[in-house]
# Entry
Amino acid sequence: MNANRTLTQLNLLGSSPQFTQSCTLIHKFSRVDATVLIEGETGTGKEVAARALHYLGKRSGQAFIPVNCGGLPESLIESELFGHERGAFTDAKSASPGLVSEADGGTLFLDEVDSLSMKAQAALLRFLQDKTYRRVGSGVTRQADVRIVVASNASLEKLVDARQFRRDLLYRLNVLVLRMPPLRERQDDALELAQVFAERFSDQYRMARKSLHPNLIALIRQHDWPGNVRELENVVHRQFLLCEDGETQLGAALATAAVLPLLQDFKSAKARAISDFERRYVQDTLKQSDGNLSQAARLAGQERSAFGKLARKYGVEEKIASTATPEG
# Structure
């Protein structure tokens, strides 16, 4: 099968040198079974790359199991990954094999791996060392032939320096490193992607194909796309749905000079407002709990891992620790 056609079928779309280099590494990494760490901003296609690694490789006939680590409650992470026996904890009405067992022979993709708690990191490290594990509540050691692919939009090196991520786990994870470039670094890939999205929406809604109006092209070229490919797809989708019957081009009604500053200013203002609120809230909650992260998370009604991720994002936890009064 033609390599470019294969990439298109796997939703790896773009012809810029930066993106082509990433695709070359995906092809190369797919031929081996080593662990891969995928880095990149939100919306750059990290899960798409992980799926490509799986479906281009020898495990393509087996399961690809994606896991959003940030969405797993801290108390259930080990149970979700490695399974549990009936009665292992209060809600364990029946035994569960776990996601590692489901991925046996295939690929386990751990997205937002940076959000794992230290306890969960230790459990993952043990599994990576020899691919053996125990279900929660069981004394039986099991083995699984699983390829591990992980992704993070945060720098794991910086988290290691901040003592929020295990250095020995990082060494196990970054055997092969793949960076997915942001859309702003990919030259005219945004235009190529926009046209592909327009064609897909035509098929989805069973409507005539439409090209991109110069106003929409100008907007695409000028915008920085902080939300990357996901944001671009949403913009094209919206323009497609707003397009009048009989129009042959998307974005004909856009007044680019007026829309672009509005898009950027609103987005920036919203991001600043959210950022300011989160920073103040995390700081105030940690102060109420005297810097105790677990207690602060309970006050906030969040999992410790999720609250800790917010604290690390704004460096609040470090500031609280550095200004705390020594005991004694």
The two ends are 70 Å apart (CA to CA).
